[in-house]
Amino acid sequence: MKFLQPSNFPRPKGYAHGVVAKGTQVFLSGVVGWNVQGEFPGGIAAQVRQALLNIVAILDEAKARPEHIVRLTWYVCDKNEYAAATKEIGVAYREIIGRHYPAMTVVEVSGLLEPQAHVEIEVTAMVPE
Question: Is residue 11 in some structural domain?
Answer without folding.
Answer: no
